[in-house]
Amino acid sequence: MKYCYECGHKLILKECYNCGVLDGIFPYCTKCNEFRFPFFNSAVSMVIFNKDFSKTLLIKQYGRDFNILSAGYVNKGETLEEALVRELREELNLEVLSFKFNESKYFEKSNSLINNFIVQVASEEFTLNPEVDSARWYSLDEAKAAVYQNSLAEYFLYLAMTKL
Ligand SMILES: [Zn+2]
User: Fold this and answer.
1) Do the Cβ atoms of 56 and 118 come closer than 8 Å?
2) Domain that includes residue 14, residue range
3) How far apart are the CA of 39 and the centre of ligand 1, in A?
4) Among 16, 54, 90, 160, fewest CB within 10 Å belongs to which?
5) Rounded percentage of the chain residues whose pLDDT exceeds 90
6) 40 half-sphere exposure, CB direction, 13 A CA radius
């Protein structure tokens, strides 16, 4: 971000010693006298496993014929943990039994920080909400072959499998 989103003034970089817990150099508008932190979205994405971690659930969405991971944006005021529980309820009507952090990755196309979690669900029974075209459980070997090469889904899935 080069210009202030409120007044259009050119931003400078200024040291901030008291930005809550953040100390560092940030964009600053000398006209508004405010720091202008860059905007980006936060999202959660989930590698979903059944109770004994023998299968993983992949979904298809938006009319596209390839498998992806269940994912969604984090609402303002919501934690990552709350977002993942909500998303799985909303998209698939699944209840989370346990979860742990896998890895995060910045995704340029949607200007999003994607926070991926390894999630264990209580039941393999799901119901699709209209946002989701289809979903299917795969054995772990099948799943590796069922995701697009070099996709984010592949990246998170392979990594998750090393952490089970
Ligand atoms: Zn300004």
Assistant:
1) no
2) 1-39
3) 15
4) 54
5) 89
6) 16
Q: What's the CA-to-centroid distance between 31 and ligand 1, angstroms?
A: 5
Predicted TM-score (pTM) of this structure: 0.89
Angle at 127 between CA 162 and CA 145, to 5 degrees: 35
CA of 77 to the centre of ligand 1 (A): 25
Do residues 50 and 79 lie in contact, with contact meaning Cβ atoms separated by under 8 Å?
A: no
Apex 83 CA angle, 37 and 125, nearest 5: 155
pLDDT tens per residue across span 143-162: 999 999 999 999 999 999 99
> Could you read off the pLDDT of 113-125 as tens digits, one per residue?
999 999 999 999 9
Round to whole Å and give the CA distance between 10 and 107. Answer: 26
DSSP H/E element including 89: helix 80-92
Dihedral of the alpha carbons of 121, 154, 103, 16, in degrees to the nearest 10 = -130
- Whether 13 and 90 share a structural domain: no
Q: How confident is the model over 52-78, as a mean pLDDT?
A: 96
Q: How far is the CA of 35 from the centre of ligand 1 (A)?
A: 9
- Residues 19, 74, single domain; the answer is no
